[in-house]
Amino acid sequence: xxxxxxxxxxxxxxxxxxxxxxxxxxxxxxxxxxxxxxxxxxxxxxxxxxxxxxxxxxxxxxxxxxxxxxxxxxxxxxxxxxxxxxxxxxxxxxxxxxxxxxxxxxxxxxxxxxxxxxxxxxxxxxxxxxxxxxxxxxxxxxxxxxxxxxxxxxxxxxxxxxxxxxxxxxxxxxxxxxxxxxxxxxxxxxxxxxxxxxxxxxxxxxxxxxxxxxxxxxxxxxxxxxxxxxxxxxxxxxxxxxxxxxxxxxxxxxxxxxxxxxxxxxxxxxxxxxxxxxxxxxxxxxxxxxxxxxx
Length: 295
What we know:
Elements (H helix, E strand, L loop, with lengths): L1 H6 L6 E4 L4 H6 L5 E4 L20 E3 L7 H7 L5 E3 L20 H11 L24 E4 L11 H13 L4 E4 L5 H8 L7 E4 L5 H9 L3 E5 L2 H8 L4 E4 L5 H4 L7 E4 L15 H4 L3 H10 L7
Parallel strand pairs: 1-2, 3-4, 5-6, 5-8, 6-7, 8-9, 9-10
InterPro entries: Glyco_trans_9, LPS_LOS_Heptosyltrfase
Organism: Streptomyces gobitricini
Protein name: Glycosyltransferase family 9 protein
């Protein structure tokens, strides 16, 4: 999105995406407004509620088509930037490569069309509100799919280990994850953990992460938020290699993964490779981390 902003500085940038992405999209400084668009199971929406004249430029960021190509073609854009697909031979875009990191892939799409884009340009500005739990190690046990959701009892073991070592711990959960948080809290001392249920407003969530000592989560959006605020993190990977979905290289963001055959990132049950990660590995990654402040 920042590549598009730099490439088209005089244009209004509209992101068609699920409504819950409006706040982080606007925080990026690269999006002027969000056009609400979603479909069950991450499918291509049946249509877009586009008002006004056809867009001058449309960019397909939903896979490599052809359904998403057709969706945008119905808007009659002046130009359509997209990956090539045999189902839409009229689009002369770059070839889709499956074995490629997501950040690199989408920047490569723009560069093919002559628009420079930096896959490392992922930082977000720190919100102008105070953190609700400054200096805490933030633990987020949830994930969109079961295959990327490490068992609650293992997160509970990590929380207890952090408390024993003197860390302040904050536990976060999104809408519908109260039961999951309760299972993680089983065995934790009463009042020993700051708990944030139901999904914090984005500015408070961003402030919590920006002021955290570290973030522990599965391979989900929260892990990317830790990268966006430059907070030390430990991310647990299972069905998808961190080489494809993981954090930028370096020592600040630690990716735990036991290599093996790829799994279903949207499956219902925890991935076997994710289950190979043990709580002591997570605690060791935090204790060995050179940038995580000691209690």
